Fold each of these.
Amino acid sequence: MDYLKQNSIVIEEIKDGIILKNVWDFNAKHIFECGQCFRWDKEDDDSYTGIAFGKVINVKSFKNNEIKILNTNIEDFKRIWFEYFDLGRDYSRIKKVLSADDTMKLAIKHGEGIRILKQDPWETLISFIISANNRISMIARSINIFSQMYGQAIIYNGKVYHAFPTIKDLSDTEFSNIRDCKAGFRCKYIIEAIKMIGSGEIDLEKIKNMETIEAEKELKRIPGVGSKVANCILLFSMQKYDTYPVDIWMKRVTEELFLKRESKAGEISDFAKEKFNDLSGFAQEYLFYYARELKIGKE
DNA sequence: TTGCAGGGGTCAA
DNA sequence: TTGACCCCTGCA
């Protein structure tokens, strides 16, 4: 099953942006705070301003299934944001299937508006290398500094933002001051990753077209990329929904809600594969958000 | 004020 | 299987 659906979204152009109507299963807070992305900041009006694919936009979701996106137009929506927000997928159906399990039903209730973004694989790779044994606020900060150092400046509302640097932006860089981005021991991994992608030794587009198992193996050739980071890249930027990234939170929540015992990382991903199959990635996101909201497993 | 644990893992021994 | 690893925050 592919869970795709006929799109019934109505697009209306307004001054500085667009309004989308008939958008189901979309909650900005759930989407931007479920751990999949690091470049979206909450504003005072509960909207989120973020940077992706070299653009800055502001997104606000409303209870009546309307979404307002500022600093964009219909053309960019069709070209970039429709796919980025995975608007062609029927999350209602996914939730219905997963809700056959009572525990999942409860978790989904907390994050009912989660959607898995289709992010840029290159940016996702570097971002999740930085995420290893790190805190969210620190990860976001490092990515921001890294972007300021090497990425293109974008002005929006009188404020300067920086696009995540493309591999081209980095081609002649020395990286003598890479440590300024405060990524600590991960800096050496970042440099190695840049070299491997830049030289073509690793081809992310090719990996995206591989089967999940092969793709994970290939990603793990990059230093700083282990199982968890590889699975995040696969899920958040390569549409491999049969993945179940296991970090400390997923270990806690899976043990507490399903396995009812201590277990190893391998056991947890085996369990997920068995139980959720090709919806593992979606289940993972609902559970992750639920676990963090309720601090499950953390005494 | 200082000191120490620990955080959305990975690597090397 | 285990400890080190940058950097920073929270808390004693």
Note: The radius of gyration of chain A is 19 Å.
Amino acid sequence: MAGTKASTAAEARDQDRRKTILRAAVEVFARKGYHGCRIADVAREAGVAYGLVYHYFKNKEELLQLVFETGWGGFMSRIRDAAEASAPLEQKIHRIAQVAFEAYRIDPRGVRVLVLEFARSPSTGEANRRTAFAEVLGVITRMFERARARGELRAGLEPALCAAMLFGSVEMSLTGFVMGLLDPRDSGLLAHAQEQLTSLFLDGARATPEDGRWKKDRSGPRLKPVRRS
Amino acid sequence: MAGTKASTAAEARDQDRRKTILRAAVEVFARKGYHGCRIADVAREAGVAYGLVYHYFKNKEELLQLVFETGWGGFMSRIRDAAEASAPLEQKIHRIAQVAFEAYRIDPRGVRVLVLEFARSPSTGEANRRTAFAEVLGVITRMFERARARGELRAGLEPALCAAMLFGSVEMSLTGFVMGLLDPRDSGLLAHAQEQLTSLFLDGARATPEDGRWKKDRSGPRLKPVRRS
DNA sequence: TCCGGCGCTGACTTTCGAGTCAACGAGGGG
DNA sequence: CCCCTCGTTGACTCGAAAGTCAGCGCCGGA
């Protein structure tokens, strides 16, 4: 049917426009932050008229909401896949780290928006961010609960706190990269990051006996004399 | 001298006023976030006239800047004390966790502002946060560098990444509490948190041999068959 | 070629809050 | 007791940005 075909084509063009504007919004948002993100800038970035933004989106709120949901949804589903896979804890953690750093490698700008703007600024008031954090932390908490049930988690560790620590480690590492406090070009630091994150989280930062000359006893005395430099 | 005494008294009253307004600003900021934080609200909260705020502070920017600096400065100096003490790594990490959770226990509202709102203003907000993060991460990175030099850090760990992971763990745990995703009343979770943070960071999440029935070998095969539930 | 609809335009209106300032009055000195 | 100073007040100004809308012109069909 010609009518159907035409309307389909029209709809496709509509979707293209929407995506153009959405991408422009990510761009501006990443560059200028929440406060500096004016609809006028988004329109200019997208190369369309000011009013058109309001033809495709109800208001600024909805637009930014969508920017967030798109990005977060993608990230979240990968995290969920990783956390809910049937694999050893070690592998799951490794995959979570991989998802995060891979996302940064592919789209630093998008990660910037998620990590710096949405994670730390009130967009829809607070509900959004709260929901988002609750979502990841919930998924990861359940992962640790299952790991504990299987005996993969060291005794005495609270799954919810493990989740906060794991996700916090990931998020702050990404923040470091995004802010330029950690340089991804430094000796493949980015690649190293996901390995170290997994390794440190699973086995800790403490020197092992073979690292140094002293034997370390985990259950030994807490205070060990240390020479000042 | 009477003149001096009078001017001193006047200055003291001035400082009181300033502090009243500053405290009101923290309050409103914590309650409504950056967007909802209007000078009118701060004035009402402090019980003074709108215009008086501008008698004591140059503008909104300066006021919020000061709110941030006050809180962050206190937090930062405690973190610095902990990180630069001459003590074993274990103790330093424990103290860092302690500083953070203690701060939350004493002043959840203040922590809320630092953790969630983090002075963001159009022009200098970004720079601020960047500086603040660079500052903590720098201090903690140096702590890990010294630990590495002393052989207290497991081989192959990048100090800067350790710093990001440690601070990220602290920050996300606090975020969990502040957002109500972690309930401090749940079986003393708050008290538990600082112990677990130290323990997990130093020794990892992996089950130790004595945790389960299987022997776990750290350098063993990465993939271990796990029964699906 | 002409017509009619609609995607698109951008100037205009509205809203809102930061920052100003003229005036008020408490209180201390003359 | 009066006046003058200065902390204090809050109505007002001004600018910025969100959101509206009347109309333009492109394009597809007759």
Note: Residues 38-40, 50-51, 54, 59-60 of chain B lie near DNA strand C (CB under 10 Å from a C1').
